[in-house]
Structures
1.
Amino acid sequence: QLACPLDLGCHSVQKLGFSDSVSQFLAFVTKENASATLPKIADAFDEILMAHNKESRATIVVAKTASREAVAEVEKLVQETFPEYKKIHFTVRVDPTIVGGFIVEGEGFTIDRSKATMINKFKKALSVSA
């Protein structure tokens, strides 16, 4: 077991309810002046935990603020499309350049049902046939 030097504030961290292991880890990070790496460590841990729990993340992109019901419909569609995930955590982003519809950007997939893409495909089809 690692020592927990008083000058590193481990005991203060323990008072916050962290376990001995976490307190020692934070003491080590502090001692090594590596606290800037904590967000990366936390993100990596989160990714590992999500994979273990069969969870994923996705962003729903809409042209304008969507109703909760509309977002829920898209979430349901994506969850049904990828049943291998027990849960998908969604965020919503507004991008007026997609004109309408939605785009879902997930880990390893994109579902594009935007009007901008439909218009571009239509224009391309017209230029090929002309």
2.
Amino acid sequence: MAILQIGISIFSKETFQCVPSLAKADSILSLTVMHLLSGQFLQALSKGSLAGPNMASEAMLNLTQICCFPFAVDMNEDLLIGVYSSFYANNLLSKLLRGSMKYLQADQLEMPVGLMSRLVLGDPNFVLQFAESVLTSNAVNFLFRIVSSGPLSVVCDIISICSHLVRSSPDYVELVLQVFQGTDEDFSVLETILQHPAAVVRSRSCSMMGNMMKHSDAFYAVLAQRTTIVKTLENCLHDEDATVRKSSSYAVGNAGYHSAELYPVLRPAIPFLITLLSDPVAKTRANAASALGNLALHAADLCEDLTKHKAVDSVLEVACHDSQYSVQECALASLKSMCDQSPLRNVLQSLKAIDKLEHMTHLSTPRPRSALIARKSISVTTVMQHCHKLIKILESSGR
């Protein structure tokens, strides 16, 4: 253990000289660190003396600290790529997961789980490696336990990892569902983290749920059976924290994106989404506009509620007058979705939407710089194109 402490001291003082050795998978340093993190070595260490279990956990934490050094300093991109490649080739992620499960207590997980999060979020190669490691190590219950009652930073990192998995591919939705269904298979932990005292946990939980529904509707069946989860998510729409409102509006929007299956339980979200159309955060306004459009995309079930709460009026106002082009684009796309339902199309006609949209196309109001840098791909030209398409839809339906 003294040798590891000396190694950490050397890394601390000569970080830039030591890190390149970790960027080579076959260097003496890399091979030594990976051997010491191997299951065989840690098991032998844990059985070597009365202090064995503590020795194994201490060794693992010291070795993890050494592996964290490359991310504690500013490195050039080539060196960072080398470190990722080395760690991937030596299967560091799997070693961290198995060692954490077997030798570490909950209050010792912050550094190894943080490193796992850094790897998964930093390089796409680690996404598959993490998923495979969870399955081969039977780590599903371990992840569930620590996300249920682990330290704040650990909970945040596990949620971020799971969120990144499902954002990367729908292939990982089933795995993440296994983690969050829990031993009782009731998914109650989702309600718990959506109501967590820390806003960062609530926000990341909403984002994760939104990403679970980004590519696939596999999560819909779970939410349809456990409507209290949806109600808890909807409560996040009027959270005091801006990031929670932003991520929850994204999740609610995706809950209506693939089909009308969840429309009945999403009905109460309508007035909250309309309120969010005037949120100070542009992305939240865009999410809210898109979500309202999705609630009319697949069926007319919610047309009466959308009309009652003046959703069409509000989205039209945003489309014509919001200061951000990205928000206007989402609002116009939402109105096009609403046009698929004749009751909402009739509302647009009654609001003289064509006149308002035509007036908008003749205006060229300068926007604040933030409107230009918020989303560079959205310009006044893009917005005008959406506007003209909506006008054509309304004109053809009015004939």
